[in-house]
Write a structure and sequence with these properties.
Largest interface: E-F, 44 and 44 residues
Radius of gyration of chain A: 23 Å
Distance between the termini of chain A: 35 Å
Number of strands of chain A: 9
Strand order of the largest sheet of chain A: 6-5-7-8-9
Number of helices of chain A: 11
Oligomer: homooctamer
Largest sheet of chain A: 5 strands, parallel
Low-confidence stretches of chain A: 28-49
Amino acid sequence: MNRARLETLLTEVADGTLTPAGALDRLTHFPTEDLDFARLDHHRALRQGQPEVVFAAGKPVDQTVTICQRLAASHGTFLCTRTSEEQARALRENFPSLEWNAPARTAWLPPSERAVALPGELLVVTAGTSDLPVSEEVVAVAAAMGANVTRLTDVGVAGIHRLLAASEQLRRADVVVVVAGMEGALPSVVGGLVAAPVIAVPTSIGYGASFGGLAALLGMLNSCAAGVTVVNIDNGFGAAMAAVRLLARLAESKR
Amino acid sequence: MNRARLETLLTEVADGTLTPAGALDRLTHFPTEDLDFARLDHHRALRQGQPEVVFAAGKPVDQTVTICQRLAASHGTFLCTRTSEEQARALRENFPSLEWNAPARTAWLPPSERAVALPGELLVVTAGTSDLPVSEEVVAVAAAMGANVTRLTDVGVAGIHRLLAASEQLRRADVVVVVAGMEGALPSVVGGLVAAPVIAVPTSIGYGASFGGLAALLGMLNSCAAGVTVVNIDNGFGAAMAAVRLLARLAESKR
Amino acid sequence: MNRARLETLLTEVADGTLTPAGALDRLTHFPTEDLDFARLDHHRALRQGQPEVVFAAGKPVDQTVTICQRLAASHGTFLCTRTSEEQARALRENFPSLEWNAPARTAWLPPSERAVALPGELLVVTAGTSDLPVSEEVVAVAAAMGANVTRLTDVGVAGIHRLLAASEQLRRADVVVVVAGMEGALPSVVGGLVAAPVIAVPTSIGYGASFGGLAALLGMLNSCAAGVTVVNIDNGFGAAMAAVRLLARLAESKR
Amino acid sequence: MNRARLETLLTEVADGTLTPAGALDRLTHFPTEDLDFARLDHHRALRQGQPEVVFAAGKPVDQTVTICQRLAASHGTFLCTRTSEEQARALRENFPSLEWNAPARTAWLPPSERAVALPGELLVVTAGTSDLPVSEEVVAVAAAMGANVTRLTDVGVAGIHRLLAASEQLRRADVVVVVAGMEGALPSVVGGLVAAPVIAVPTSIGYGASFGGLAALLGMLNSCAAGVTVVNIDNGFGAAMAAVRLLARLAESKR
Amino acid sequence: MNRARLETLLTEVADGTLTPAGALDRLTHFPTEDLDFARLDHHRALRQGQPEVVFAAGKPVDQTVTICQRLAASHGTFLCTRTSEEQARALRENFPSLEWNAPARTAWLPPSERAVALPGELLVVTAGTSDLPVSEEVVAVAAAMGANVTRLTDVGVAGIHRLLAASEQLRRADVVVVVAGMEGALPSVVGGLVAAPVIAVPTSIGYGASFGGLAALLGMLNSCAAGVTVVNIDNGFGAAMAAVRLLARLAESKR
Amino acid sequence: MNRARLETLLTEVADGTLTPAGALDRLTHFPTEDLDFARLDHHRALRQGQPEVVFAAGKPVDQTVTICQRLAASHGTFLCTRTSEEQARALRENFPSLEWNAPARTAWLPPSERAVALPGELLVVTAGTSDLPVSEEVVAVAAAMGANVTRLTDVGVAGIHRLLAASEQLRRADVVVVVAGMEGALPSVVGGLVAAPVIAVPTSIGYGASFGGLAALLGMLNSCAAGVTVVNIDNGFGAAMAAVRLLARLAESKR
Amino acid sequence: MNRARLETLLTEVADGTLTPAGALDRLTHFPTEDLDFARLDHHRALRQGQPEVVFAAGKPVDQTVTICQRLAASHGTFLCTRTSEEQARALRENFPSLEWNAPARTAWLPPSERAVALPGELLVVTAGTSDLPVSEEVVAVAAAMGANVTRLTDVGVAGIHRLLAASEQLRRADVVVVVAGMEGALPSVVGGLVAAPVIAVPTSIGYGASFGGLAALLGMLNSCAAGVTVVNIDNGFGAAMAAVRLLARLAESKR
Amino acid sequence: MNRARLETLLTEVADGTLTPAGALDRLTHFPTEDLDFARLDHHRALRQGQPEVVFAAGKPVDQTVTICQRLAASHGTFLCTRTSEEQARALRENFPSLEWNAPARTAWLPPSERAVALPGELLVVTAGTSDLPVSEEVVAVAAAMGANVTRLTDVGVAGIHRLLAASEQLRRADVVVVVAGMEGALPSVVGGLVAAPVIAVPTSIGYGASFGGLAALLGMLNSCAAGVTVVNIDNGFGAAMAAVRLLARLAESKR
């Protein structure tokens, strides 16, 4: 039951062609259709200035292009994650202004006019150069969502001085995403240095017993720094969205 | 928004004190309250002749008694699973007609008049005597739900002749629950012998590398008999409820 | 000992050329050969209107064709699962009426005359579009077995309203197969909405810590909705067969 | 090198008894002692209106009391998590105004005057009643830290209508902590309903294959709702601290 | 269909009261009842001189005594594994000649006259003194089954000379059971020293990352000595039975 | 210290140029060199009539050929396991009489005259056709070692009658190797049917939650049939060698 | 063949009653008995100034006392690890000079005169106070072995400044043992600060997903600091012995 | 704050343009910048005679060359691990004196003049020929670092005599690295034979249940030889660096 149909029903009640009891009956038998509104409302809220996100991994090239064309038509923008080079090439042919971030594997069509910018500052801290594809996904997704993003790279805990030298930058951030593989210790150290929210992203980088990122994941879940939260292995997209949720709340609370 | 309030709203639309647009606005801003109805309906359907189920494990004795008293007051019956002896004793003091199945750890207050009996026959097959606490939970829960239950016990695959000798009984059943620990092989053999639905319950019985039932669980999930389904380790309650869903559907389809 | 030989033996007893004691001796020394009959009977029962199922994954193309030719010769139909494109092409050359379902990877030779149709309705609910290959396998296998199948797709729990909008369709089904990857939460929500049997299929779709579908599998085994059963990861075939067992029982109980 | 010694050094440079080169040499050979200051500063910042947190599990009663006496002497407040009843009794004898939250196992000495209250609202959503000890820890710790906390309890996904009925309350929150055991599906549904940050806490509640909360943990890490973050199993303390980090940032950004 | 009933049937065919066709029909509809014979035969074979084995763990004392009384009555002997001290005491009251092996947790009633002794020699090699309860179970069970058992103890690989000093004893054995915890390396070394069958038993002895014997189990399964076989963790009973199967075959082949 | 040097030493003692005390000193300082002898003896014993075994997986083609040429030169025979087609082709060019078993991936150069044949009969039982590569490795290796091998194939437990029909063949065997993937239940059923030693080989065949054969491995380790032993996943070579150890012992005991 | 028998043999060769060939024969047929010497020699070397180590966990009190009495009689000293309070009390009754380290659970009888002290300095770094039982075991065992041990405690990575403040102490150490639970990140930071060998000990301290120390173990194995080595979970004894091996080598190299 | 800026600050204090209080304030607000010095000092120490190490796996060829050119320019040497053949070829074109160790996958540019050689002897013991790539990485890295390395190869525990024959070589070594796959038992035996530090490297060599080296890793962590330490699976680089830390300490202690 969409808005139009609900309007019709209520008009019928108003003009007497449907009794309240009859309307009650129809409403109670289609309890979920009303939720169409919520869905639409919700979508509208989500859409404000922010692109829809397509998880492109494994999607056929033509299907990816079709989805993006539909998104571009209705919203004027789109964002793809885990985009292959082949998909990116096909998208660029259709959308010359496409921004293709190769290491992050994101393909973004920036909207013609940028509606909303998120307040505050997101700092993306990366342990090693091998973790960069994941942290670049954080950067690309968050930037597409309107966040103000800065980077702090190659500050793994085995050379702790490099991180400490950036303590000023760390303390300034409103939310810190920390990307690390191997033992995943960096979020613990960062969590001890800053008071802001820290979102940890384990990566699948490591020798044998990293077990595809399990070691870093467990390390981050067991962080001795209180209040560090964790997302899935290599899930830069998820970390960016978590940061965006937070920055959006800052915006909300400022109004 | 409950039924009463929705009725009021519709009456207000009918008598003109509320415009359709105003009603539309109120309805769309409380999209979920309509669902109260579904919940109530749903509960009513569930309640017909069937007891509510209390997972008693770890609940304080007095809290368990209170919950059961409330259920008995409104429905005239209740069923507790994973009930300790101490909980059972306290319940019996309050409900002399309580049926306490010690190995199954169920405590059931039978309703004064039994409303609905499920059609068909549920056969509970058990591999070894150590698995009996779990299979007795299947029996007790399903029986309380109105199912007609029979047992086939101690027919583990290492003495396959015992199972084959019961092939007539196996073929008669409308649904078969197979309870087994150790390597969990019995559901595969049963699944090959019968055409009826087979629900497998792994138990935590076994030496070291059973890893608390993991071996049996994986065995059952990998059954070479097509169409065997599985519930959680030691989850006799879940298997009984799955069987009841199925028998209830038989009842439905007979109408 | 096949039927012919048993007939001979009994005739010999009848005409006195073999004493009852001698027959007893021979029968007890070949205890399993009698089972030949059961096997044949069983096969005949299974075969009625339903194709044999070939697990084609990894089989050489020529071997796959040979097996299917033998099945087609004796039963007039066959069904292959996990069929590669190359296998499918070779089969089509031999069987022009072959139905090749590319996403489901099934290849089915429909029988010239359909003997038995299963009663009731199987609803296949899919969480995300990435799960479609698995749910299409459910659909293709169940349909080949004679089931009446409908689909409900892209109703993952992160946008719960989409599922609720289909509650009517959900309640109508006689058995629901729910296919989901990632956290595998959809069967729990569906299990709470319907009273019919719910069979959950975890898929291997997900980021790093899905561990090839383990996360979804464990989620479904631990479903808080009572009576949800589970099959192996990506095992659309198994779920279809479990549903067919159930629908066949409905047919049985209607007679 | 503490502040006093650094002051002496600088004075010596100022009055010429130490050359800049000599001071440079001494400073570069004790690079970390300067950090004493940062530590003190940092501690001061952390301490503002917020109690120190003692992880009491396994600590001898007398040692626990001694630590708390020292904290009370210097800060006028303390907070213990995972406190046993015996520890709590001993603490109350020493601190009559102690607030002992039995299910949460927290023991808190409220400060005589509350310095800082955090802005915004933290909503703690709990799937089942068995998860309450963990969610009560969230509530107790966050409240002690100055957060404004509300609860939404027993809204597991198997009866999704209960959650939807509270959508207004969900949307109002500035940060949502979702506590769930078994399949851990609730954060996915909540994450789809709200735009605010969602912190998921898996609990160790469940049958065999929950493997002590592993099923819920994996489920939450694989959430299909973008931007949900996760803490360790049963780690109500960690979730509260993550929420406090966020609310503190809201406070920061409002200045 | 037991022997008596089959005899009746055949007699009826012989005297013409049942036609061969009728008999054929009845036989083919009860295919499994014939297997009664096999079962009886099988049992007789198993029973020759060897006690039945009762897995006593978790069985109530009275139930354990009852089972053993029944076994003693029909076979004149019994063997219990994983027997508690309380069970053993109760058994001794009933059977004064009971042999109670405390570390092995076996309780054995020796038959009044020993019928069959197995040929050959079983050598049980134990890595450390902590592994003795498991190796003693091997010794007690195999001895009760009629095997000739010798021991070689405390010859862990970290002091390899102790093992090499016993090479003569090792080479003499017809089958070697090797019991080891921790890294489970001993079977590999033994397997390289002897040509006889080697059965490895991992024990749950070890520090944290032995994970209850998993380390030893995996080590033994990956043994670089060709042809070493493995039983479950702490499963001394299983290893003894495997050795007995082998020694019995030696006996068979000598006839 | 090799034989020559030990001879020299003893001669020196005999002719008085070295005192017993001096010889004692030298001998005790080179304790392991004596073992050179044992090694030679041991090798000689192992070599009698049996080929050396080369694990060819991953070895470069030329290196594989070189090793085999050396073995052929000294022993007149060799056996390679896990041989690639490319390796096999290169070997055949050098050894025209090479026997290349493609599914088993073994390449065997039969000795010109066969010295020793093992007594008894090894039966290799296979659950499904997908398990054949592993069971063929058992057959090929055991046959090369001189064993008399027979096969029983496609007797998975979901169609138990096929196995029971072969009970005569099962009972005749001196040792049974059972190869099965998926839930690995077949060894339990076989172990219950025969008194001979049973060696179980799990294969990596199966859907998702077989986890590369882990499900079958755990199933076999937890077999409810007493005395079944297990080798590593897909380790047909190991099972063959375990069977050969046993058959060799039969030979030994017959002398 | 012990020393006495070897002496006899050599004397026989010397006086001509045994030919060199005959002696050669006897020596080569008892290859391992010579190793008796090596064992004794080896033991003597090990014993110099260092106590034997008894793993007391699970040993009966009387057996523990007996073993220690035998060690005290022959060596004048002993060391027990994992000693229970009851065992310690019984030992003290027999050995009034026993040193009982309660948190470390070690019981040590110091030798009357200390023969050898190891050179260099062992620094034991501990992350949190909950890890102290493990690090105290390192200290007690290493001290009993003659090592010079110092401690650096409560320097977890969440407050990195505490560790950096001790950089002088860290750089001075010849070998560093780092004990940490939870995410086990401390060895990575320490490994980046010092050039000396770093031995990491994971502890079982942590919330749910530490899985009994697995998280810390994996973290340490994946350390991004090159050249950090790891011992088993909670294995303070092993870390101490690894450090002692190293310090003993320093002593060796100084000679 | 770098050295230049600190020098300026101190000069300002010395000439009175900055008060000690002002300098104190600035120093305490930039606590970490001082650490620049430590970092530089540290790097200088590390650089003495030892090449920087590049983990080349996955790096683009041109990027690898650029990094190495920069290292060669400043240090005159570099070392790459996990170098592909393509990377090695490109490096050799730029650096004709490059030493490319194909099995070890290391590419090393030796410095024109070798500054420092480490004292002592590193012995690398390898279980099987399949483990050689890992042990060659140990050799290549340690040699590049200035260590004196010898090899002992193909001495797996299934033929223990081969290892014992090399006991002299084993006892001579100052540090032993033991490389083994499968059950990983070799370090236990070696650890029992030598008093020197033993570093164990598990490799991923093995059949199915080695689980990519997990079996060997767990085996080594549970070694019954006291004081054996472990590095990550296949981590030859880490073992070499651990040995180098130790040999460098020997050098230190000799001064």
